[in-house]
């Protein structure tokens, strides 16, 4: 009997990098990718993943991370650029942009170069958050950084499309990660969990990473249960 579409492993044989995968959405995404057959550059189990320390604000470390992945796994099919700073009172503007924008741009740059060199029609999935679709009078630096990510995704998708590389982003609202719960909302993860769960975002990332979205690029997939539509 043919394998059920619902049981099909969507990333079988794919090599994936998940940044910011130590906890929260990144960790959930890494586990989901592995369950769908991916080899993930993150520590989630023998033969399924490898852990790599990387400061995304340092481009040389990002380059080394991508090169290590290609050398050890033979190729790179997908990168999930997930790093973020969620302390909305953070005053170090340059460091905020180094992480949210420059770090993500470095991941896109070096992943794309590896995909092109390896003749891989890959997928790049970034994180923008709903801040990329609205504004805020208090946390201007954070919102600007998220709008910049959306600009990066839309521009990179046009430039890399000729190489068969898709670039998209996921924009979650409030997810029950410890960082978001404590810093942004002043509530514990259990309280926030009543709103959204990490798996909801991970499912969206899986869709954009897999061939299910082979005709989708330059897209901002908002995961907010309709909050922005109200």
UniProtKB/TrEMBL annotation:
InterPro entries xrefs: NAD(P)-bd_dom_sf, SDR_fam
Pfam families named among the record's database cross-references: adh_short_C2
Gene3D superfamilies associated with the record: NAD(P)-binding Rossmann-like Domain (3.40.50.720)
PANTHER family given in the database record: SHORT-CHAIN DEHYDROGENASE REDUCTASE, SHORT-CHAIN DEHYDROGENASE REDUCTASE 3B-LIKE
UniProt record similarity statement: Belongs to the short-chain dehydrogenases/reductases (SDR) family.
Protein's name in the database: (-)-isopiperitenol/(-)-carveol dehydrogenase
Organism: Quercus suber
Lineage summary: Eukaryota, Viridiplantae, Streptophyta, Embryophyta, Tracheophyta
């Amino acid at each position: 009997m043919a394998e059920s579409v619902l049981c099909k492993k969507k990333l079988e044989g794919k090599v994936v990098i998940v940044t910011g995968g130590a906890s929260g959405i990144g960790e959930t995404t890494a586990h989901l990718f592995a369950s769908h057959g991916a080899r993930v550059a993150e520590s989630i189990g023998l033969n399924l993943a490898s852990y790599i320390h990387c400061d995304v604000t340092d481009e040389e470390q990002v380059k080394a991370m991508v090169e290590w992945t290609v050398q050890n796994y033979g190729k790179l099919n997908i990168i999930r650029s997930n790093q973020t700073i969620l302390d909305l009172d953070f005053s170090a503007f340059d460091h905020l942009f180094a992480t949210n924008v420059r770090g993500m741009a470095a991941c896109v740059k070096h992943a794309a170069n590896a995909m092109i060199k390896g003749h891989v029609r890959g997928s790049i999935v970034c994180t923008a958050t709903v801040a990329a679709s609205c504004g805020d009078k208090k946390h201007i630096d954070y919102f600007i950084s998220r709008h910049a990510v959306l600009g990066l995704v839309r521009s990179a998708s046009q430039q890399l499309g000729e190489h068969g590389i898709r670039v998209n982003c996921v924009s979650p609202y409030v997810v029950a990660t410890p960082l978001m719960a404590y810093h942004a909302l002043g509530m514990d993860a259990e309280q926030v969990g009543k709103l959204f769960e990490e798996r909801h975002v991970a499912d969206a990332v899986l869709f954009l990473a897999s061939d299910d979205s082979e005709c989708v690029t330059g897209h901002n997939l908002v995961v907010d249960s309709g909050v922005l539509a109200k």
